[in-house]
Amino acid sequence: MKTIALVAHDGKKAALLEWITQHQRFFANKELIATGTTGKLISAALQQPVRCMASGPLGGDQQIGALIAEQQIDWLIFFWDPLSSQPHDPDVKALIRLAVVWNIPVACNIATADFIIHSSLNHADYQREIPDFKAHNDRLTKPGR
Predict the structure, then answer these.
(1) Confidence at residue 40, expressed as pLDDT on a 0 to 100 scale
(2) Selecting from 3.40.50.1380, 3.40.50.300, 3.40.605.10, 3.40.350.10, what CATH number does the domain 3-141 have?
(3) Catalytic amino acids?
């Protein structure tokens, strides 16, 4: 079962809810994890359980980032609002950065989310390449570092 993280800024929650409701069948057999308010709204809209983290500004983005680093998230849908200033903007950037570091698909808008869910790779046993950071970690553990 694929695990999908869902996040939306306040100005994009309605768009995410509308989009996810249109694709309700796709999400029926997925494990869903979301930041606080977004998760509650999605659970009500889809009538299925959603594992809710804290609200984004209270650390929910970072909790999801930790799950990505632990390789517990298969892909991230993050409808962020590029026209609004966010007080926790560094957390937002860190979350997207972790998704790129760990090579998971990221959708930040409806078009990209549509491409991901309609991909033929969803109907195959696609195994993403998990980066090997051994050389990086070894470099950090050498004496004199």
Answers:
(1) 96
(2) 3.40.50.1380
(3) 61
Kindly report the backbone phi and psi dihedral angles of residue 9, in degrees, each rounded to the nearest multiple of 5, phi listed first.
-65, 160
User: pTM (2 decimals)?
Assistant: 0.86
Contact between 22 and 30 under an 8 Å Cβ cutoff? The reply is: no
Whether the CB-CB separation of 30 and 4 falls below 8 Å is answered with yes
Burial class of 77 by CB neighbour count within 10 A (0 to 12, 13 to 18, 19+): buried
Sheet holding 51-52, edge to edge: 51-52, 31-34, 3-8, 75-79, 106-107
Q: How many other C-beta atoms lie within 10 A of the C-beta of residue 26?
A: 13
Domain boundaries, the chain: 3-141
Phi, psi of 77 (to 5 degrees): -110, 115
What average pLDDT does range 4-25 have in this prediction? 95
Q: For the residues 81-86, what does the mean pLDDT come to?
A: 73
